[in-house]
Amino acid sequence: MTTTALPAPGQAPKLHTKKLPTVAFFGVAVVALGLGAALSYGTGIGGWVLALVLGLVLYLVGVFIAVNAVEGRRSARNRTWSALIHSAFVLAVLPLISVVWTLVSKGADRLDGDFFGSSMNNIGARDPNGGAYHAIIGTLEQVGIAALITIPLGVLGAIYIVEYGRGRFTFLIRFFVDVMTGIPSIVAGLFVLAFWVLIVSPWFNDGAPAFSGFAAALALSVLMLPTIVRSTEEMLRLVPAPLREGSYALGVPKWKTILKIVIPTALPGIVTGIMLSIARAAGETAPVLLVAGGSAAINFNPFDAQQGSLSLFVFQQAGDASRFAPARAWTAALTLVALVLILTIAAKLLARRNRIPR
Amino acid sequence: MADRHSRSADVSTGGPGVTSSHARPAGATASTGVLDGQPGGNAPVPPDFRTNGGGLGGGGALPRRKGFGAESMFRGLTLAAGTMVLVIIVAITVFLIAKAVPALRADDANFLTETDWFANESPPRFGIAALAYGTVISAVIALAVAVPIALGIALYLSHYAHQRIATALGFMIDLLAAVPSVVFGLWGLIVFVEPVRDFSVWLNKYFSWIPLFGGDGPFGRSLMLGGLVLAIMVLPIITSLSREVFMQTPTANEEAALALGSTKWEMIRTAVLPYGRPGVIASVMLGLGRALGETIALAMTLGFINEISPNIIKNGGNTIAANIANGFGEAGELGRGALIASGLVLFTITLIVNMIARAIIYRRREFTESAA
Amino acid sequence: MKLQRHGTIACLALTAALALSACGSDNEAPSTPGASGGASSAAADCATGTLNAFGSSAQKNAVDEWRKAYQQLCTGTTINYEPNGSGAGIQSFISKTADFAGSDSALKEEEQPQADARCGSGPAIHLPMVIGPVAVAYNLPGVDGLQLKPDTLAKIFNGSIKKWDDPAIKADNASATLPSTNIQTVHRSDESGTTDNFTKYLSTVSPANWTFGNAKAWKAPGGTGSKGSDGVATSVKGAEGTIGYMEWSYAENGGLSKAKIANGAGEFTELTAEAAGKTIAGAEVTGTGDDLKMKIDYATKAPGAYPIVLVTYEIVCSKGTPADKLALVKGFLNFAASAEGQGSLTELGYAPLPTEVQTKVQASIKNLA
């Protein structure tokens, strides 16, 4: 048989082309791995990692050659690309597994009551105990305040864009909401530093700039606002027009229609977006580093004196000289990831359950 | 595609979103002209105008007089909230410039070409050249690694994997996006640095004739490590948006390609990829924006040398954002101003990159609507 | 809609938060009596209130130790010390955010008037509190007790000595067998008082070879930068043939070999608390009145003195500390300067203040108003 897949016009079309049996792929894989190992160890320039990488490359080449010979060039291309696409996926999952594994294995060391029940106050370099209680409080308060600021602002902004906005100005707002989602977190931190900590906060603090949990909340707000506007906007647009029209027909004014009909209909979706943005904000370190000051002791008051946060705690403990610090850093990281993932997963499950039918 | 509905809610994780293509007309119809053409002041709208303009509602049945105060108040409130975004963007620019200018005035060197960062010396001498170089190189490494893999995953999820598996795996990739950067930093600093160091030593041993892999160490905490950690972080962003656009390929195009006897790959190459190209470019730009602005993961993994060197495996490298995070503590008043100035540069760059990405997405959105 | 479920979740979260807030502890009670620097002898002058301080990370472990002992001794006091860096400390002190600042270097000429202005009625003064010897640590398997003369050290860090078996190093180490591998120097990439002191040392003892002056930022070309002393220690530990400088405690924690450095008398001394203290004892006080700004004699000829040391100060107002904070500032600093406070530092990689300096510091603290 020729290597072209399409039969010449004169011939009777063949319904079955030759196919390489599945066993052949295993064969190619084994040979490729063997060759890779031989090349890697034989020349002495690498270990098992290189053997695997070479094996993969050789497998791809081998598959191409084998399929090319049996099924033709186009089929060979197809199969090689399939293999490449599948291996891309494996490659991406590896770091995820590694991160999860190290988090769980290293983070379990300090996963005790002391970690969640005490702060780093009065913990010297030689003390093995100490915990992240103050940091957890900081994160909860800062994210909570940021949510209080951004939820009304974001939802109202989205209502404007969807329900009232017209023309160029609205387009401008939509465009910059999208652009704003890409603002680096450190820039948000610098902004709040320049604006709030250095210029505004001295008014409330006898002329001295004050670091505070509230400043961190402001920085997080800058990061949360666009995501909330964006997701709310998406959800409001999904609310079917007849619902609104029905309400108008009954003589309900527009603002009431929005508050009583549109928002409740879109609520689960809006909540999902809010939860996702909260999850994102909880993991931010850079703005907190610049404007919250950090503290080793428990501080419940976000408006006065420095505060820590869970992500900042990870950053600080990672650079600490004490030999007990790495264990604290890992456990804090595990806690942070757990918090963020629980929020994310809950949000996504919520989204899945409460889909608005189109 | 049942999955697409849920994806539109997911969109907020990384920001990207092209899903509202179908949704938009719905919302637009709903808001058509109920208050269209209203002058915006307090003057009541004549009833006939409203009925004519909107073609909705029960005309005289609307309790207009009573509801109007609340209506315009509510409208004003939403307008204020919407304007807030623009106010914040302007405020960021204004305050950063205000704090940066005094430092830039005091700078003894050319801010754009100087490679050193001695902002707390007297006279201060600092420039952004080496930092900007490190920022760009780490982002380039990240994209060079992440883009092919992300596109592979996106294709796998949209065209290869079984629907159920694709949903689950896509969920997993989204979770990767949710992991905070400080955790990736810690992981890069303590775990990932080991294989990267070994790999660097190996590269250096056999490929030191390529300037990228030259030098005589020490290796490990290099731009390559930073870039690879970044790659993992931008991967979900590129994947999720690319997957969206790949899934939006009109079924007719795909079926036409298959009907002409294409293999699966040929179908993807001729129907899916060209259709998705603008979306892919936009997703790469968004990933680039994220990579340029990432702070903590790089502040924890890089080796910090301010120099412009082609070598990517030697300890060293520094980026604008990481320099801010690391230099903030020891910075005096002028030093802070200098860091804010560098932050302004970073803000400008990411703003431009994001605006380009969004512009592409917006244009594409119109295209999608007309095609669909 | 499924609002009930949101309600449940919110309730759960709230309950969890409340439960959490009920059991939080700031570790105020001494966990193991006696282990915390001798909390048994209640010698401190107690005062109540809150102190906020920012500053050097080099003295973090020392301040943490004092805070712990003092806060456990005196209930009702809160002392915050955030090791954000000397620069942030001085900035916060000038802007009145901090009640005192910890700094690795004395105030700069342009900073002194700003700090004085912040105090109002009296100048801001420096109180030396912690002596941190700077270790020169290296990673060279098989070579123990490497000895280095100042000139050799300067040449290594300026890049003119490139190999471990360089004649200059051989001359300093007659008995050692040195490999012919490349020397990789590691320095701090962030600005730090450690770098400032180390370069001050080099430019004093070997001006011909060290032409880069002294600064908080590393200015010599070449070498590798690492963030923080822990970063330098990790880099040295991670690669053979490396040499770097770091605070003593980091070298100890990392289990690194430390070089013996020749002092002004040409005597190779090992780094011990005592040897570092000898250099400080010979330091000259350049401040006037209560200001105890010190000038270290890096070329000290005192027998057994280890020459590379770092003095970190607490910067306070001699006059003008608000009345409600004054008692606490005095009480805390007095505790830090006491024999008890200083005695707890040795195990942390610091050297205690020599007695004569300690007396001066205590006298200055008494005069604070």
TrEMBL record, chain A:
Q: Which Gene3D superfamilies match?
A: MetI-like
The biological process GO terms on file are: phosphate ion transmembrane transport
User: Topologically, how does it sit relative to the membrane?
Assistant: Multi-pass membrane protein
One of the entry's Gene Ontology molecular-function terms is:
phosphate transmembrane transporter activity
GO cellular component entries: plasma membrane
Would you say which domain of life the source belongs to?
Bacteria
Q: Write out the annotated subcellular location.
A: Cell membrane
Main localization is membrane
Q: Where is the ABC transmembrane type-1 domain?
A: 136-351
Q: Which family does it belong to?
A: Belongs to the binding-protein-dependent transport system permease family. CysTW subfamily.
Q: What does this protein do?
A: Part of the binding-protein-dependent transport system for phosphate; probably responsible for the translocation of the substrate across the membrane.
The identity of this protein, by name, is Phosphate transport system permease protein PstA
Q: Which organism is it from?
A: Asanoa ishikariensis
UniProtKB/TrEMBL annotation, chain B:
- Region of interest (Disordered), ranges: 1-60
ABC transmembrane type-1 domain mapped to chain residues: 132-357
Which Pfam family, any one, appears in the UniProt record?
Answer: BPD_transp_1
| Keyword list, A-Z | Cell membrane, Membrane, Phosphate transport, Transmembrane, Transmembrane helix, Transport
What GO cellular component is one of the record's annotations? plasma membrane
Q: Where are the transmembrane segments?
A: 74-98, 130-157, 169-193, 219-238, 279-305, 338-357
Instruction: Report the main location listed first in the record.
Output: membrane
Tell me yes or no: is Membrane among this UniProt entry's keywords: yes
Check the record and name the CDD domains matching this protein.
TM_PBP2
Output the Gene Ontology terms for molecular function.
phosphate transmembrane transporter activity
Organism domain of life? Bacteria
One GO term under biological process is: phosphate ion transport
Q: Looking at the keywords, is Coiled coil present?
A: no
Where in or outside the cell? Cell membrane
Q: How does it sit in the membrane?
A: Multi-pass membrane protein
Q: Which family does it belong to?
A: Belongs to the binding-protein-dependent transport system permease family. CysTW subfamily.
Question: What is the annotated role of this protein in its UniProt record?
Answer: Part of the binding-protein-dependent transport system for phosphate; probably responsible for the translocation of the substrate across the membrane.
Q: Spell out the protein name for this chain.
A: Phosphate transport system permease protein
Protein source organism = Asanoa ishikariensis
TrEMBL record, chain C:
Where the record annotates domain PBP, the positions are 41-340
A single Pfam family it belongs to is PBP_like_2
Q: Which organism is it from?
A: Asanoa ishikariensis
> What keywords is this UniProt entry annotated with?
Phosphate transport, Signal, Transport
Q: Which family does it belong to?
A: Belongs to the PstS family.
Spell out the protein name for this chain: Phosphate-binding protein
Q: Which domain of life is it from?
A: Bacteria
**Record Gene3D superfamilies:** Periplasmic binding protein-like II
GO cellular component terms, semicolon-separated: ATP-binding cassette (ABC) transporter complex
**Could you list the residue ranges that cross the membrane?**
none
Q: Where is the signal peptide?
A: 1-22
Please spell out the taxonomic lineage of the organism that makes this protein.
Bacteria, Bacillati, Actinomycetota, Actinomycetes, Micromonosporales
The UniProt annotation places phosphate binding at: 56-58, 86, 104, 192-194
Q: Which GO terms describe its biological process?
A: phosphate ion transmembrane transport
Instruction: Output the PROSITE patterns linked to this UniProt entry.
Output: PROKAR_LIPOPROTEIN (PS51257)
Q: Which GO terms describe its molecular function?
A: phosphate ion binding
